[in-house]
Amino acid sequence: MSKVRVRFAPSPTGYVHVGNARTALFNWLFARHEGGAFVLRIEDTDVERSEKGYESQLVEDLRWFGLDWDEGPDKGGPFGPYRQSERQDLYAQFAKELVGAGRGYFCFCSAEQLEAERQDALKAGRQPKYSGRCRTLAAEEAARRVKNREPAAIRLKIEPGEFRWQDLVHGEVVFSSDVIGDPILVRSGGHPGYNYAVVIDDHMMQISHVIRGDDHISNTPRQLALYRALGWEPPAFAHLSTILGPDRARLSKRHGATSLQNFREEGILPEALRNYLALLGWSPADGKTEILGGDALAEQFSLAHVTKSPAVFDAEKLAWMNRQYMKGAAPECLARLSAPFLVKATYLAEPIAPATMAWIERVLDATLKNLDRLDQLPAATRLIFDYDATTVVSSEETRHVAEDPAARQVLAALIPKVLADESLTFARFREIAKEVQKETGKKGKDLFHPIRVAVTGAVSGPELEKLIPIFEEGAKLNLAKPIKSTAERLREFAAAARLE
Question: Which of 221, 250, 392, 405 lies at a C-alpha separation of 20 to 30 Å from 384?
Fold first, then answer.
């Protein structure tokens, strides 16, 4: 049985952004590839910023993203609880042991004193770090001040030397203890510091590999110091490259969508987003395959193929990949994912009947080739739901059809025949068009352009072969925005254009 255990440990202080989503994905892929365990842990010790609503949202977003976990706050597991706010006694226990062993000490410095030290270091051109002012306090004196309820943090004593580890992405990394001040383990208010709680949790949860962003590289020496102080074996570390925007600056909101929530609202398919994010900083063994759906990502994933170079987020490449996944999606699945966007546009209302869902499949078949994302569907289907003959005959783009004698001749011959047919199909519509061709002598664009504009209100769009059945079926459905049949459209056009 695999001993691989990895974790994704977000803070519930905001939405899951691209960097965190990729970190979660790489941990999940590594666990699934190795047959190990993937743990979800909520790091909610930042009491001022942590919110339950964000925790619920991140769980929902991760599930939408297609990730599952073997242990977590909602599932439990052998090493729970899985929220840091519920593990305070554990942190207090080890902090007490470290102080008792002389590896930790109480620090009574105020925030003002620490800030003054920091500013002095910056002015002198030094790397800011704690001076160790309270490090030499006698244990008895420190105990007396704590007993008198004087605010005190607990710090770790950093011993002289170096911190070295073989990073699974960056190779050998070395830090001197000279650049590291004694880090805070527990703040004066009783809450654990990040670098303290994460070590306790990772050890107690038997995490074998810590896979995280390379912004945590500078945290690693402090964590290694704590592993040494506690006599524990550290896990393996793999630090993932930063994700940049097209301008080579760190990816941020100004570059567009940056969170799982954003991509979900845009109508990016989770499978496409997983595939795309997996290729930001990793490549399959052949170095060229781009579409890796289903289990293929987990089967091929390896930390050996993760690069340390920053990855550039390319929105156009994601759009291309999303198109591939939409084209390959099961029609009923795509219709289910698309329906909320049509509801939001007030074209449909919930609950959606099975017959309407089947009709949405037909709509998608007609419009899909023009879509990069599902939030583009309302605009792409506007000609289906919104038809106004007065606008058609007066707008700059389409009024020529109502004014051109040749076009009017075609429509004058076509419309009565369509109105006379009580059960219009596209096959019958095509027969009528052929009859009109013989009567008028018009063919090709001269025949079908006026017909398209009169029926759809647009100079271009999906094939009439697909639109006619959509109009006919849609007119029979009970939709929030009623669909006009082909005959209704042409009757209105004839009246607006004053065709004889």
Answer: 405
Residues 220, 163 contacting (CB under 8 angstroms):
yes
CA distance 489 to 429: 14
How far is the C-alpha of 479 from the C-alpha of 483, rounded, in Å?
8
> Could you write out the DSSP letters of every residue in 286-324?
TS------TTHHHHH--GGGB-SSPEEP-HHHHHHHHHH
DSSP 59: H
Q: Which helix (H) or strand (E) holds 490?
A: helix 486-497
To the query of whether residue 438 is one of the catalytic residues in this protein, the response is no
Residues β-bridged to residue 234 = none
If we measure between CA atoms, which residue out of 202, 210, 207, 208 comes closest to residue 230? Answer: 202
Q: List the domain boundaries for the chain.
A: 330-500
Task: State pLDDT tens for residues 249-284.
Answer: 888 767 766 899 999 999 999 999 999 999 999 999
**CA of 69: how far to CAs of 7, 76, 386, in Å?**
9, 10, 45
Say which of 3, 253, 327, 434 is annotated catalytic.
253
Q: What is the pLDDT of residues 96-143, one digit of tens each?
A: 999 999 999 999 999 999 999 999 989 998 888 899 999 999 999 999
What's the chain's length in residues? 500
List residues bridging with 186 in a β-sheet: 154, 192
Q: Which long-range contacts (CB under 8 A, 24 or more apart) does 122-127 make?
A: 127/179
Burial letters for 256-269: b for 16+ Cβ neighbours within 10 Å, e otherwise? ebbbbbebbbbbbb
Residues linked to residue 327 through DSSP beta bridges, in sequence order: none
CATH number of 330-500: 1.10.10.350
- Burial class of residue 85, CB neighbours in 10 A (0-12, 13-18, 19+): middle
